[in-house]
Write a structure and sequence with these properties.
It is a single chain. The protein is α+β, with helices and mostly antiparallel strands and 482 residues long. The chain folds into 2 domains: 221 residues, Pnp Oxidase, Chain A; 154 residues, UbiD C-terminal domain-like (3-Layer(aba) Sandwich), CATH 3.40.1670. 26% of the residues lie in helices and 25% in strands. Strand 7 and strand 8 form a beta hairpin. The relative contact order is 0.12. The model has no long low-confidence stretch (mean pLDDT 89).
Amino acid sequence: MPFKDLRDFLATLEQKGEIAHVSGAHWNLELGVLSELAFERQGPALLFENIAEYPGEYRIVSNLCTTKERSLLALGISPEDSGEIMIRWKECLEKYRPVPPAHVSSGPVLENEFRGQEIDLFKFPVPRWHELDGGRYIGTGDCVILRDPEDGRINVGTYRLQVQDRCTTTIQQSPRNDGSKILRKYWKKGLSAPVVATLGQEPVFFLTACGRVTHLAAESELDLAGFIRGEPVEVIDGKLTGLPIPATAEIAIEGFVPPPDVDSRGEGPFGEVTGYYWGGTGKEPVIQVQALYHRNQPIIVGAPPFKPVPSHYAFPLPMGPELATWMRLENEGINGITGVRNLGYCGATVIRVRQENETQVPQLMSAVERLRMSQRLVILVDDDIDINAAEDVLWAVGTRSDPATDLRTDTFTSSWDLNPSLSIEQRRQLREENIGYPFSRIVINACQPFSDKAKLSPVNKFNQKLRREALEKWEKVLNPKR
């Protein structure tokens, strides 16, 4: 059964011991540093209550999906071997059919409603997440809803929202994002774009909005969320914009984004998913908030990025980008892929393949070179390598690759605006003018030579059956604290 709302998911985390209650932390950096420490330790989700300087009824939750277990729980999947999960998830999405949202007349999000001078975004304990952030960000784990003015398609994306004043936020998007393209269509006509943003929602809707769980980029995120949930997302038609507002959202804002020459504000810097700050303060378009809705005792979902840790997830389970790579390689005629893993945002992608003949890996190397992936390092490994363990991947590189023959480098033009090697000026120019810069990378073949597989020494590791039996029999010895 899908989770009916965020609170239903939190109740399940509570039952499983996957959430910790934090009382009295301060919105200025303390929420951020605690979230960072919990992330690095693969700790629980954090529910911040009684936040300093604010009434106790306003809450923030962070680290909802920063472990594989919680990400999979949100999707209703048992946390087994991630390679098998990826295969089953790929098979599931191959059966995709849209499940459109169900329009309802009311919902919990309308328990409180504010207009005009009543609106004050600072009534919420909006965090400053990182030390060098240029302000307070109410939207990091949000869902921004737009309608394409040409075809009427609803788009949902996750874009950061920095509070500028009581009724204004900036909205930061890459020019490549669908949401940015939609805004430019309105601006070209001299129009302000209607927009809705939710700041706390059922986890599948968020994971779909930020593109973490599917490669079906051309599909409506609302329809995708309905498919994944197994039932439609209930939405209310916005009173000012007509846009769909999820009925069980914790907080929703409704407003308009005018053309940047009408209103734009200074935004950033902000700690990015790459582990760096994007740069200085730049001008970004704004959302002029004209209506604010929220549930009683509302909960903001925070998903601030932190410096990646390759052995686990800096952000929700990234199956969407990984599946996109997998499908693109299959479309190139490559067979035998059994897993793809992006090691956080460390600039590395690992592709696992089950070798069937001598030409398979060379063909895969050539196919990878044709893909324009914003990753500095692409590593190919055999099917016996745990692609979720950075140390196992490095072991394969150190013992199975020959730098003289198994490394390739190439350069192509990239418009990736988070490229840390670019200067602040180049990043800003790329974002404003949508141009490209040279991007170089390395592709490493860390697979065993197929013709020599029978000659190589077997790996010094017990088989999975014996390991599982030993774990079951001696769990108290091996895990004494449990």
